[in-house]
Amino acid sequence: MASDPSPEREILTYATFGSAIRELAQTVADSGYEPDIVLSIARGGLPVGGALGYALGVKNVSVVNVEFYTGVDERLDLPVMLPPTPDVVDLAGAKVLIADDVADSGKTLELVRAYCADQVAEARTAVLYTKPRSIIQPEYSWKDTDQWIVFPWSAEPPVTANAVQTEA
Questions:
Q1: What does the buried/exposed string (b/e) look like for 113-130 if buried means 16 or more CB atoms within 10 Å of the residue's CB?
Q2: What angle do CA 109, 110, 115 make, to 5 degrees?
Q3: Which of 57, 82, 152, 167 is most buried by its number of CB atoms within 10 A?
Q4: Tens digit of pLDDT for each residue in 14-55?
Q5: Predicted confidence (pLDDT) per residue in 115-133, tens digit
Q6: What is the helix (H) or strand (E) element at residue 14, kind and residue range?
Q7: Contact 142/33 with Cβ under 8 angstroms?
Q8: Which pTM was predicted?
Q9: Where's the Phosphoribosyltransferase domain (predicted)?
Q10: pLDDT given for residue 150 in this prediction
Q11: Which residue in 145, 149, 66, 134 sits closest to 103, CA to CA?
Q12: What is the DSSP letter of 163?
């Protein structure tokens, strides 16, 4: 039997995602941190931030859109915030939990944390995965990995008009 030449990948399923979010939320709760707002980094942080909001009982969930990845292990030189950005005055004095799917290079988390820094009472970060090369060590992380991660929300190509869905 021939071996698979593709690199190993970390596969996250929706079922595991549910368990991971509960564990991540429990870590936040056990630390005593009670965020006023969950700030999700779109796009990968949208499911994470929304789920953490529910798990932690935080109804104020907001989004900041940052572009960095352009493909599998392909990225821009630096992350870029895309409009609309939340008004930092709306974050003034708040305890913010910045949520994303992965701290890979850490540059996206660094950008968003810096954006909030002068306005918020406190900002902490929560991610599902942390990679060893990340320049930011999130306060809360579900798992460490050095593999490429396949998330359930990005495992399939985008749906297009008139695409035929087949069952395996």
A1: bebbeebbeebbbbbbbb
A2: 95
A3: 152
A4: 999 999 999 999 999 999 999 999 999 998 999 999 999 999
A5: 888 889 999 999 999 999 9
A6: helix 14-31
A7: no
A8: 0.84
A9: 14-156
A10: 95
A11: 134
A12: P
